[in-house]
Structures are given as structure tokens and as C-alpha cells.
Design a protein that fits this description.
The complex is a heterodimer of chains A (about 1000) and B (about 100). With about 1000 residues, chain A is α+β, with helices and mostly antiparallel strands. Chain A is built from 26 helices and 50 strands. Chain A has 7 domains: about 160 residues, Ubiquitin-like (UB roll) (Roll), CATH 3.10.20.440; about 190 residues, FAD/NAD(P)-binding domain (3-Layer(bba) Sandwich); about 140 residues, 3-Layer(bba) Sandwich (FAD/NAD(P)-binding domain), CATH 3.50.50.60; about 70 residues, Arc Repressor Mutant, subunit A (Orthogonal Bundle); about 150 residues, Probable tRNA modification gtpase trme, domain 1 (Gyrase A, domain 2, 2-Layer Sandwich); about 90 residues, 2-Layer Sandwich (Alpha-Beta Plaits); about 100 residues, Elongation Factor Tu (Ef-tu), domain 3 (Beta Barrel), CATH 2.40.30.110. In chain A, helix 5 packs parallel to helix 7, helix 8 packs across helix 9 and helix 13 packs across helix 15. The chains are: A alpha+beta (about 1000), B alpha+beta (about 100).
């Protein structure tokens, strides 16, 4: 290739040179260049190595369909692999490297694969290495596990950085009346026309420059800046560097805006990319068309690109890519490229496969000095690192005949055009084959979408502009609830395109590529057919044709045409594969946006969060909440701390932040009836000023949640739920009231955020409360008995709700104060507790206390447990009906051998065992065993480790039987004893007393 | 992404809503037969076409709504409050003239 940058012309700024690095070599380009154009102008021809055969590859296109110049950009943690050099804007200091090659793309040892290319046909690796013959015949894939690693290394693309991504990404939301995809002539006319009619229009362009096809047409480029100014003046929001990667339900489009990928020194505050969710009422797809290659011998050599690409490099980037150019075509579009290149000073020969060509551009091309040869095409390209000559083919009565050689340094192909119908395909619409224009176009449909320009198979400029206006009119009609008029027909060439996909002559064996990105050859397609893969979807998966980032851009139509030929069918009968989002690759970072690191999920802090931290609390996650885990004293670890806290609660008093419990205000004249229907136990006669522990079931009869509900007044209840199920319970109660029980006059309000909760537990809890209460007479044993509730004030005029309820099994109180008073109330309570040798306790100690008592939490109530299983059967009223009361009595759920809640002691009291272990009968450790362990703790009260769990038939079934706690992957087996779940103070004297 | 016209909040993304269940299911009384409850809880038609569904505007007004949706095209044909009283209230409030 004798490439040179022209002194004038193009959309580049020759006064602004930019330095960049390619494979360690310093090079220069200009502002306005793509990386590809700068490499081309610098004379770099080998830019990549192919996926499987490691064949040298150069530029094949000038856009997103590029299959040759796939490179790695950036260094260190900002290394970005598999970037198409053709769509990467050049910036000062850009560092790019070739990939899938060692030591470099120019000299790649992997190219040895190409010598054995005849073995590497479709399915080669799987056929060969899975069940490696003769050693593994019929024995599966042992060796594959080993080979795969090597194969993956040899075949592939770039390597991603292993460092954390240092860039930030944003999620953004957009709204518009009409979304226009593509800023070519059709897109611009659609946007202008709609905006001038008063609609809110967003125009999206994937390239770093606006203009689409007009950028490479001299006469259109001249007026482009005025046109863009007119669009802005009409209020069109223009987004360049932005890809519409997918189209979804409800007029939602996914856009990826590359904010800084084209900047050499982006400001630190800028996100690298922005992921837009754009909601529009109508979408105009003016996404253009991609020029196809033809399949012929060695059609992937560096120095072979599409005719349109050469036109773009010439007219947009001011580069004449060759001196002695041959163009092979089957349609009219190549004539414009031929004339432009000839006018720029190249010697151009145009081979038109059609024998009869009647058109004015042909005359124009000939007057521009182009040598036009009809009925001719290419059989094979010669030269490994660049083309130096070609074998011609001439049409004959029965196909093609090999002809003479011809020298050239650049070979251009125009095998027809494929409208970019990918976005339409995302909507589940199957494109239909237009045999006149030899391409897939949009089917009839009822989506709020219009196709315009070459995306609709319209080839001439004037009709493209017109189709844009028509699309805008359709959009406006749709927004007014009217139906669109008939659309402009595809077409626009003077001489019809010839359906030509492959040129081959028997006896001339060459590798001819259909999908160069995945090294799929024409022979691979035929092999797949021979082996019985006759559906296009199977063909695609077997050969990898048009998969991955290509999404059918390059080789799909040729592949389908060859498959149709092999099957003896027409292309429409074979059909096409489905194009899926994203249209071009999206970085994972953009998908995640800001939801990384500490923002990975929201964090809920209680009003006492800072108080807990200042008091020396170590926090842990409980769902989204941060809760104090334990409060270590100097020299203590978690083990010592929680044991001391647990002991202290049982000996004197402990104070704990329990804010994370769900809290729901249940109010209204029918609140009592409502509660009576959702709880298993009776609530109809709960007195004002009393609390009751209640269990809720799901419709299917399993336990949903438990908690206490306090009756504050006749029609005013305060419900608490578990931390884990707060949202679920709220939603279910709302559903019941709004759907099933619309007659109940009940209002629900989530007040979880409004109240801070503090538990005060231990023999001296009464004294603490008394000291804190503004009026001590209100919290005496008589005024506030077990399960009593009062609304009162604490010292310092702090409003409070207090109930005497216990989770720890000690005499205990739960105090709720308005959130903002939380820290003040905690100061007050803690001071009163501290002087009584009390402690602060955290989640770990809370767990130990409740395990000792056999109280269940989320670990036990896992959705598979009935109220009987949880040992709470006495809470299920048989005098009333409630949610779940019918289905909990299904025969299977009443079986006596269901796993029931039990307590677990290690046989040797010095031993420890783990939660998550399986309980098995001694001597029969297998399968799922007979039960499982849900929670363990060291029990200071009992002086050894204890656990809770479920085992078939419950405690009474396992008295004096040998049980093993099996934990084969961690601790091994521990002989245990099954006991009642009420392991400490079973009579409850401490709690009631 | 579906876009759902919440009767209270306007057109919103479906990500603000939570799907409930088949709105055509009629739950038996709490003391109904086991068969009736079994059918209501477990038996569902796998509808190809228009189905009515309950959704909750979880991240909005928290109201339960009934959505008629075509399972084949994802077209939403209608949306109304699940609570009939709410439908009435909406219709009533729409007819009230502003004070000034």
C-alpha cells in the first residue's frame, strides 16, 4: 500500500498535529483523525492478528463493523482491549497496541496456526480435544480441562486489565418526544423537521463527529456545519460519541455516551462514560447501512477494505490509501468511490460483476479516468502482509472462470449494502429479505418506530433526506394517535444490484473469509451444512458466524447466502439470526455506574450509629443496616466481648440498639379486625396499653414473620417486624388492604425511620428505666407489667414508647423514641446502666441470648418452616381463621416427622460445632441427613457451646439417640445431643418475674 | 423496560414497581376450603395474550394497581387502582374545580 496524506481536503485540522504511540513506536496524526486513519496515514498496514489463524490483518472498514484493526488502548489500569481503531478518536498521547499476537502483530509466532489452517475448521477444538482420541474415547473431557487453557490463550482477543477500574461512570435518565438514531442526511432531516414542528428531539450519533455519510461526501460536508447549526437552533439536542446500543419495551433506548474516551487529559470530575436510559415516544432509526465484503481467496489480506472505507479515508481524513487501486463491486455505489479516488490521483480499475451496466455514474467514473471492466471480479488476492496483485475472474456461462493476474496495491470491495436493522431486531421484529436490493429490511410492524435513509434500504441522497422528513411526519402522526402513511420504497440504484456473495472456481483452493472477526470461512459454512447444521441459529453457534461483538455486521448476509446455496434454498427461506443488544460493546463499568465500592448497595444507619461508634462499637451488616456487632473492651476480641456482654445482661443489665426492627403504624376503626386476620394468635381482645407477640403466615401456610404489636389506643397499633422482613410484611399488608379486604378501614404507615429503638435487658432493667423516666411512678411493676405498654416521657422531656417485652429471656424493656432524640435517650439510658455495672451489647450477644432461650429469627424462619416446625404451634389459634390457616393444614405439613426446632449440645461439652452442619444419625452420615443446624453460640449461662436447628420429629423423637453433627468440609463430625430448644430458664421465671 | 401509567403518579419506569400476581385470582374467604385455597395460591394460567396483573408502586405512592398487559407484546392496555374506592376517589377529585 502506497498511502499518503493529501495536502488539502477532509475534516482534519492540519494545524493541530497529535502525537500517539503504536506498539511502542511514536507516530503522529491530526486533530479530527480516528486512530485508524492516523495509522493508515503513518503507513502502518498490519494492525491485528486474526482470532484463530493469527493471520495478519489491516483496516477493512472505517466504522464500527471493523474486523481487522481491533486493538488495545491505554496502559495499566486503564488498558481497554478490543477497541475498533476505526471508531476511536485520536488524541494527544494515545497509546495503542496490537493484540492476539506475540511478540507483535507484525511478527507473530502464532501465525504458525495458519500453516495448519486446513485442520482448524469449524468445531475443530471440540472435535479434537474433548474426549481426546484414542485415550479418552467415550470417556468425556478430562484432557479438555487442560487443553482449554492453552487453546484460550492462543485463540482470542485482547487482555483486559486486572487492576481495579480507576474511572467513574454515570447513569443518566433522559426523556424526549422523538429519538433520532444517526446523524446522516436522513437522521438530520428527520430531526430538523420534527423539531421545527415543536417536538423535543434528541439526535444520537455514535461517531465522534456528527454528519454520518455526509462527512465523506465533499459537497455535503461543505454545508454540514450550517445544517448542524440549524438543528441546534431548532432545539434538537445533539449527542455525539453516543451509541444507541439497544431498543427496549416502552420506547426505552439504551445509550452509551463516551464522555472522555476521546480526550487526552480529561478533567478528573468527568465520568468516563455515561449510561443513558432514554425514554422517547417515537424512535426514528436512521442508522445507515454497512457495506459488505465478498468472499474470495485471501479476502482478508491487509490492503483490502470496503470501497466506502477508502472514500471515507479520502474525503473525511484526507488520505489516499493506494496508488494503484482495484475495486470489485456488484452495485452502483462503488462508482462514486472510484471517481473520488481517481480524481485524487490514483490509478483506478473497477471490476463490475454485472455485464450490463447503464448508469450515469459509470459515465462519470469513466470521465474521471476510471477503467471500468464489466462481468469481472476477483478470484484471489496475493501477498501476505499486503496485496501486490490479484487473480481476476471472468463471468462465464456456468459461473466464474479464472483469468489473468493484475498488479495493485489496494483492493476495494463493495459487495452490496446491509441496512443496520439491529435496533429493530432488538424489538423482536424479524427483518425481511428484499431480493431486489439484496438486503434485509424492516418488516411491516406496529411499533412506534420509523426507519429512514439507507437503514431503510434507500440509497440516493435526495430520497434519504425525503425519507427523514417522512419519518418525522410518521412520528408526529403517531403522537397524535394517527396511523402513518405508506413509506418510501427501498432502492435508488439505476442498475439493480447483483446477488453476488462468493467468487470461486473449482480447482482454485483458497481461504475465503465470511466473518473475518471470528475466522469463519466459506468452507466452514459448507462443512457445517455437511455435518447437519441446517438451521441458521445452529449454523451461527457451530461456526461462531456473526457472534459476539460483531452481531452480524460483517459476515451475516454472506454466510446466510452460502447456507442457502448449500441447502438449495433462497435466502428468505433460510432466514436470518437475531441481532441482540448491545449493538457495539459496552464496558461493565458503564453498566454498574456509581454502584461500586461502598455504593454497591445502600447503607442504612440507625439514628444511634455515631453514638454506637463513639462508644467503641464494631459494626456489622444486617441486611442493608449497619448494626453494632459487639463492644470490645481493651484486649478483647469478638469472642471475649460477646461472652462478657451476654453474661452481663444475665447478671445486671445490657443496652442494645434495636432500631433496625421494622415498625408499622396500623390505624383505623378496623385495625383490630385486620390484625386478628393476619396474626395466627388472637388479637381481638388485646387491651389498650398491652403488647402481644404474634406470628404471621403466608397464604401457603408457612411462617412469614414474627414480632410484637402494641395497642396504643382503641384504633391505634404499633407493629414491629423482624429487620429482614420489614419491607415484605409492609407490602403484603398493603396488598391485603388494597386488593382482598377493600372494606376494612385501616391505614398503614411505615414508621421504621421515625423511631429509634433501644432494648434494656437484665435483672436491673427496671431500675434503669425508673431512673430515666420523667415520672418513675409510670414504670413500676404495677403500671408497666410484663407485656405492658406506656407512652410517656424520659428525663429531658424526651417522648418515649415503652413496652416490657423480652427477646433475651431476661426482664426487659423496648423503648422507642423519635429518631432525633435517639442519641440523647441513649446517653440517659447508658448512664443509668453503666453505674449498675451494665454493658452495651451487640448483635452477637443478642444472638447468644436468644439461642439460649430458643427464640427464632430469620435463620430459623427461612420460608420453609411451619408454625409447628418452629415449635410455636400453641400460637396457632383454632378458634378463628387467619391468613394461612387453611393451607397450613395440608396433610404433608401436618406429618409428625417434619423437621422441628430443637436445641443442640455437644456430647463432649468442651467441643465446638458449626452452624450450617447437617444432623445425622450416628453411623449413617449420608445425603441430607435428618436435620440441620441454624445457629450456634457459646452459652455463658450453660458454660459450653449450644445450637439451634431442625431435626425430624423434634426433640422427643431423639431422646437418648446418638446424633452426629456432620461438617465434612470444615470441622468434621461432632457427636451431639438433641435437647429442648428452651435451653436456658425454660420456665421463664427471669422474664416474667 | 415497561412504562406504567400510575393512576396517582403518572408514567413511570417499571423498575419503580413490583409485580404482585395474577389480578384475576379471587381469594376464597379465610375459612374457605383447602381446595379453593390451593387453587387460588398455586394454580395459575400461563396466558398468551392479555392478562391482568397486580403491581405495587413500591418506590412511588405504594398503591396497588391492576395492569392489563399483553404478555406477547408487552403492550399495556389499561391501568387502574386495585382498590375500587380509589378509582372512585380519583374520578371524584378530577371533577372538583380548584378553589380559585
Amino acid at each position: 500500500m502506497n498511502t499518503r496524506r493529501l495536502p488539502i481536503g477532509g475534516q482534519i485540522n492540519r494545524t493541530k498535529p497529535l502525537d500517539f504511540e503504536w506498539d511502542g513506536k511514536p507516530l503522529a496524526g491530526y486533530e479530527g483523525d480516528s486512530l485508524a486513519s492516523a495509522l493508515l496515514a503513518s503507513g502502518e498496514t498490519i494492525l491485528g492478528r486474526s482470532f484463530k489463524y493469527h493471520r495478519p490483518r489491516g483496516l477493512m472498514s472505517a466504522g464500527v463493523e471493523e474486523s481487522g484493526a481491533i486493538v488495545t488502548i491505554g496502559t495499566g489500569s486503564r488498558r481497554d482491549a478490543n477497541v475498533k481503531a476505526t471508531s476511536q478518536a485520536l488524541y494527544d498521547g494515545l497509546v495503542a497496541k496490537g493484540q492476539n499476537a506475540w511478540p507483535s502483530v507484525r511478527n507473530d509466532f502464532g501465525a504458525v496456526n495458519n500453516l495448519f489452517g486446513r485442520f482448524f475448521a469449524a468445531g475443530f477444538y471440540y472435535k479434537t480435544f474433548m474426549g481426546l482420541p484414542p485415550f479418552e474415547w467415550g470417556k468425556g473431557t478430562g484432557a479438555w480441562m487442560w487443553y482449554e487453557k492453552i487453546i484460550r490463550k492462543a485463540a482470542g482477543m485482547g487482555t483486559a486489565s486486572r487492576d481495579a477500574d480507576p474511572d467513574t461512570y454515570e447513569h443518566a435518565n433522559g426523556y424526549c418526544d422523538i429519538l433520532v438514531v444517526g446523524s446522516g442526511p436522513a437522521g438530520r432531516s428527520a430531526a430538523l423537521s420534527a423539531a421545527q414542528s415543536g417536538y423535543d428531539v434528541v439526535l444520537v450519533e455514535q461517531d465522534f463527529a456528527l454528519g454520518g455519510e455526509s462527512l465523506s461526501r465533499v459537497e455535503e460536508a461543505d454545508t454540514l456545519s450550517q445544517e448542524l447549526a440549524a438543528l441546534r437552533a431548532a432545539g434538537v439536542r445533539l449527542m455525539e460519541n453516543t451509541t444507541t446500543f439497544g431498543l427496549y419495551d416502552g420506547g426505552v433506548a439504551g445509550l452509551l455516551e463516551r464522555v472522555t474516551d476521546h480526550l487526552s487529559a480529561p478533567p478528573e470530575w468527568m465520568p468516563r462514560q455515561r449510561f443513558w436510559t432514554m425514554r422517547s415516544r417515537f424512535t426514528v432509526i436512521a442508522s445507515g447501512a454497512l457495506e459488505r465484503h465478498l468472499a474470495f481467496g485471501n479476502n482478508d489480506r491487509p490492503g483490502i477494505m470496503t470501497a466506502n472505507a477508502a472514500k471515507i479515508y479520502l474525503n473525511r481524513y484526507g488520505i489516499l490509501a493506494g496508488e494503484n487501486i482495484v475495486i470489485a463491486t456488484n452495485n452502483d455505489s462503488a462508482y462514486l468511490s472510484a471517481s473520488s479516488l481517481s480524481n485524487a490521483g490514483a490509478r483506478v480499475t473497477l471490476l463490475d460483476s454485472r455485464e450490463q451496466v447503464l448508469n450515469s455514474s459509470q459515465a462519470g467514473a469513466q470521465s474521471a479516468g476510471v477503467d471500468v471492466k464489466s462481468g469481472m471480479s476477483i478470484l484471489n488476492a496475493k501477498g501476505s502482509t499486503g496485496v501486490y496483485s490479484i487473480d481476476l475472474a471472468e463471468k462465464s456461462s456456468d459461473g466464474w472462470r479464472a483469468k489473468n493476474q493484475m498488479a495493485c496495491d489496494l483492493l476495494l470491495i463493495s459487495g452490496g449494502w446491509s441496512p443496520v436493522v439491529n435496533l429493530l431486531s432488538h424489538r423482536g421484529l424479524k427483518p425481511v429479505w428484499d431480493s431486489v436490493n439484496a438486503c434485509f429490511i424492516a418488516p411491516d410492524h406496529h411499533e412506534p418506530i420509523a426507519m429512514a435513509g439507507s437503514a431503510a434500504g434507500i440509497w440516493d441522497h435526495a430520497s434519504c433526506v425525503q425519507s427523514g422528513e417522512k419519518a418525522a411526519a410518521d412520528a408526529i402522526a403517531h403522537l397524535h394517535g394517527e396511523r402513518a402513511q405508506t413509506s418510501i420504497k427501498a432502492g435508488g440504484w439505476e442498475t439493480p444490484i447483483e446477488g453476488l456473495y462468493e467468487i470461486s472456481v473449482s480447482g482454485h483452493q483458497h481461504k475465503s473469509f465470511v466473518d473475518p472477526q471470528h475466522d469463519v470461512t466459506a468452507d466452514d459454512i459448507r462443512l457445517a451444512h455437511q455435518e447437519g447444521f441446517v438451521s441458521v441459529e445452529h449454523l451461527k453457534r457451530y461456526t461462531t458466524l456473526g457472534m459476539a461483538t460483531d452481531q452480524g455486521k460483517m459476515g451475516n448476509v454472506i454466510g446466510l447466502a452460502l447456507m442457502a446455496e448449500a441447502l438449495g434454498k433462497e435466502i428468505p427461506e433460510v432466514g436470518t439470526t437475531t441481532f441482540r443488544p448491545p449493538y457495539t460493546p459496552i464496558s461493565i463499568g458503564a453498566l454498574k455506574g456509581r454502584n461500586v465500592g461502598s455504593h454497591f448497595r445502600p447503607l442504612r444507619r440507625t439514628p444511634l450509629h455515631d453514638w454506637n461508634l463513639n462508644a467503641g462499637g464494631t459494626m456489622t451488616m444486617a441486611g442493608l443496616w449497619h448494626r453494632p456487632w459487639y463492644f470490645a473492651q481493651p484486649g478483647e476480641g469478638i469472642g471475649e466481648a460477646y461472652v462478657r456482654e451476654t453474661e452481663t445482661v444475665r447478671r445486671t443489665v445490657g443496652v442494645c440498639d434495636v432500631t433496625s426492627l421494622g415498625k408499622i403504624a396500623v390505624q383505623g376503626p378496623d385495625a383490630t379486625e385486620f390484625l386478628n386476620r393476619v396474626y395466627t394468635n388472637p388479637f381481638a381482645k388485646l387491651a389498650v396499653g398491652k403488647a402481644r407477640y404474634g406470628i404471621m403466615l403466608r397464604d401457603d401456610g408457612f411462617v412469614m414473620d414474627d414480632g410484637t404489636t402494641w395497642r396504643l389506643a382503641e384504633n391505634d397499633y404499633f407493629m414491629t417486624t423482624t429487620t429482614a422482613h420489614a419491607a415484605k410484611v409492609m407490602t403484603f399488608l398493603e396488598e391485603l388492604l388494597q386488593t382482598r379486604w377493600q372494606d376494612l378501614r385501616v391505614h398503614l404507615t411505615s414508621v421504621s425511620e421515625q423511631w429509634a429503638g433501644i432494648a434494656v435487658a437484665g435483672p436491673q432493667s427496671r431500675e434503669v428505666i425508673t431512673e430515666c423516666a420523667a415520672d418513675p411512678r409510670k414504670v413500676t411493676d404495677v403500671a408497666l407489667p410484663f407485656m405492658g405498654v406506656i407512652e410517656t416521657t424520659l428525663k429531658g422531656n424526651i417522648p418515649a414508647r415503652i413496652a416490657r417485652i423480652s427477646f433475651s429471656g431476661e426482664r426487659a424493656f423496648e423503648i422507642y423514641i423519635p429518631s432525633d432524640y435517639g442519641p440523647a435517650a441513649m446517653d440517659l439510658i447508658w448512664n443509668a446502666a453503666r453505674v449498675r455495672e451494665g454493658c452495651l451489647y451487640g448483635l452477637e450477644s443478642l444472638g447468644a441470648l436468644r439461642i439460649e432461650k430458643g427464640h427464632v429469627t430469620g435463620a430459623e424462619l427461612d420460608g420453609r418452616v411451619t408454625i409447628e416446625d418452629a415449635g410455636l404451634g400453641r400460637m396457632a389459634s383454632d378458634k378463628k381463621s387467619y391468613i394461612g390457616s387453611v393451607l397450613k393444614n395440608r396433610p404433608e405439613l401436618l406429618k409428625g416427622d417434619r423437621p422441628r426446632l430443637v436445641g443442640i449440645f455437644p456430647k463432649d461439652r468442651r467441643e465446638i460445632f458449626n452452624a450450617g452442619s447437617i444432623l445425622c444419625q450416628d453411623g449413617n452420615i449420608s445425603g441430607y441427613g435428618n436435620g440441620w443446624v441454624t445457629a450456634v453460640t457459646h452459652s455463658p449461662a450453660l458454660g459450653h457451646w449450644i445450637g439451634l436447628g431442625f431435626i425430624e420429629g423434634g426433640y422427643s423423637n431423639w431422646i437418648d439417640r446418638e446424633v452426629v453433627c456432620a461438617d465434612p468440609l470444615r470441622k468434621g463430625n461432632t457427636p451431639v445431643e438433641i435437647v429442648s430448644p428452651h435451653m436456658f430458664d425454660p420456665s421463664g421465671d427471669r422474664m416474667y418475674g | 423496560m415497561l412504562r406504567i401509567q400510575c393512576p396517582f403518579c403518572g408514567l413511570r419506569d417499571h423498575s419503580e414497581f413490583s409485580y404482585g400476581s395474577d389480578a384475576s385470582v379471587e381469594y376464597p374467604p379465610l375459612d374457605g376450603s383447602q381446595e379453593a385455597w390451593h387453587d387460588a395460591v398455586f394454580q395459575r394460567e400461563n396466558i398468551d395474550g392479555v392478562q391482568s396483573e397486580t403491581w405495587q408502586h413500591t418506590l412511588g405512592c405504594r398503591m396497588w394497581i391492576v395492569v392489563e398487559r399483553n404478555t406477547r407484546t408487552h403492550d399495556i392496555l389499561s391501568v387502574r387502582p386495585a382498590h375500587d374506592g380509589m378509582t372512585q376517589a380519583l374520578n371524584t377529585s378530577l371533577s372538583i374545580e380548584p378553589d380559585q
